[in-house]
């Protein structure tokens, strides 16, 4: 564990939004939810290794082991209440741990490759759409909406997986139509726009990204490009290890090699080191700022980072929604779970979280 200068109070930092050990209603929803999800993950794991005769058996073993561990967590709630926080992040990370234990290191690799190829082919068109918006507020609004719509492409969310399975043509523009219209469930967009108008450009932005494909290529990259245009250095942080269809740091570096040549701003920044990629130290779909690699912590400090952007349900909603940071923070996510939307005070599927906080 390394000290991250972005934490306002490292000693009391608690990433998890929910504690299933103390919140009975949350526990009553999430334990059955994960029991159902693990069956779908087991099927995905077996299908990812169809050329291996042992895959189906190992997938069944993975499912049984996960359920056993899940039962143990649930049976120990009374003993652990008030002593240990049990967040949804732990149950999500457990999924990845068990998959690796039974030989499934990257079950969503094929989907990631296909979605990255498709998104790369549409990047130039998306950048032109952004550039055609002359008004700065309107352009930034569309960029934020693009990040949010891109975040719909999450194979870990059952509501989205169903859409993607049924409609192979579902893309960014369709997602833009699906997300909640303003005013959003948590809507600080106007404060973010005002900050861009009234204050100098940020020195350095650290962006913790989420999914492969449309999310990172058509959502995050145009957003990062606009920051680069303002003179802000950008550090893109992606998973160290595969998790669901989340992009890894290695995959993101390869994507930028391919994408940068489509845009002079990205190309110049990528070549000059004003746009960099770092591994975030995570092996699951959430984000614990206490476990960032030293290399990333050093880069955050050395570049005088003054803007933190956290994207996605796992990193900005299951974790870090209520965490306080020592710099300006923009948390962006689409709520792809109706129970969670209601828990947060909304009543719509695909409700939007746009939480901007000054340090």
From TrEMBL:
Catalysed reactions, as listed in the record: (R)-4'-phospho-S-sulfopantetheine + H2O = (R)-S-sulfopantetheine + phosphate
Extent of the signal sequence: none
Pfam family, one: ARMT1-like_dom
Domain Damage-control phosphatase ARMT1-like metal-binding, residue spans: 49-348
GO molecular function: ATP binding; hydrolase activity; metal ion binding; pantothenate kinase activity
Alphabetical UniProt keywords: Coiled coil, Hydrolase, Manganese, Metal-binding, Nickel, Nitration
PANTHER family the record matches: 4'-PHOSPHOPANTETHEINE PHOSPHATASE (PTHR12280:SF35), PANTOTHENATE KINASE (PTHR12280)
Purpose: Phosphatase which shows a preference for 4'-phosphopantetheine and its oxidatively damaged forms (sulfonate or S-sulfonate), providing strong indirect evidence that the phosphatase activity pre-empts damage in the coenzyme A (CoA) pathway. Hydrolyzing excess 4'-phosphopantetheine could constitute a directed overflow mechanism to prevent its oxidation to the S-sulfonate, sulfonate, or other forms. Hydrolyzing 4'-phosphopantetheine sulfonate or S-sulfonate would forestall their conversion to inactive forms of CoA and acyl carrier protein.
Coiled coil (UniProt feature): 109-136
Needed cofactors: Ni(2+); Mn(2+)
Entries under SUPFAM superfamilies matching the protein: AF1104-like
Assembly with partners or alone: Homodimer. Interacts with PKM.
CC annotations in GO: cytosol; nucleus
Domain of life per record: Eukaryota
Protein name: 4'-phosphopantetheine phosphatase
Biological process according to GO: coenzyme A biosynthetic process
């Amino acid at each position: 564990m390394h000290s991250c200068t972005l934490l306002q109070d490292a000693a009391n930092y608690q990433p998890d939004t929910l504690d299933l050990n103390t919140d009975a209603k949350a526990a009553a929803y999430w334990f059955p939810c994960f029991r159902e999800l693990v069956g779908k993950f087991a099927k995905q794991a077996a299908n990812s290794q169809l050329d291996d005769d042992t895959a189906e058996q190992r997938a069944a073993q993975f499912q049984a082991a996960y359920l056993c561990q899940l039962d143990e967590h649930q049976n120990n709630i009374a003993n652990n209440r008030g002593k240990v926080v049990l967040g949804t992040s732990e149950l999500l990370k457990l999924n990845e741990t068990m998959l690796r234990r039974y030989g499934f290191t990257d079950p969503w690799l094929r989907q990631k490759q296909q979605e990255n190829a498709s998104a790369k082919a549409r990047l130039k068109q998306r950048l032109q759409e952004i550039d055609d918006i002359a008004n700065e507020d309107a352009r930034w609004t569309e960029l934020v909406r693009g990040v949010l719509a891109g975040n719909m492409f999450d194979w870990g969310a059952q509501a989205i997986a169903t859409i993607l399975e049924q409609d192979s043509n579902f893309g960014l523009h369709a997602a833009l139509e699906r997300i909640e219209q303003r005013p959003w469930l948590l809507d600080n967009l106007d404060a973010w726009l005002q900050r861009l108008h009234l204050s100098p450009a940020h020195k350095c932005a650290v962006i913790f990204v989420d999914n492969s494909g449309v999310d990172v290529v058509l959502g995050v990259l145009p957003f990062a490009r606009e920051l680069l245009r303002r003179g802000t250095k950008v550090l893109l942080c992606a998973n160290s290890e595969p998790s669901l269809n989340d992009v890894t740091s290695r995959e993101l570096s390869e994507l930028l090699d391919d994408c940068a040549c489509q845009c002079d701003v990205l190309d110049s920044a990528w070549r000059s080191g004003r746009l960099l990629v770092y591994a975030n130290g995570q092996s699951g779909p959430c984000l614990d700022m206490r476990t960032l690699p030293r290399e990333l912590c050093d880069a955050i400090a050395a570049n005088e980072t003054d803007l933190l952007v956290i994207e996605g349900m796992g990193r900005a909603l299951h974790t870090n929604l209520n965490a306080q940071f020592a710099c300006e923070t923009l948390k962006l996510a689409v709520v792809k779970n109706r129970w969670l939307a209601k828990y947060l005070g909304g009543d719509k599927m695909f409700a939007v979280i746009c939480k901007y906080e000054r340090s």
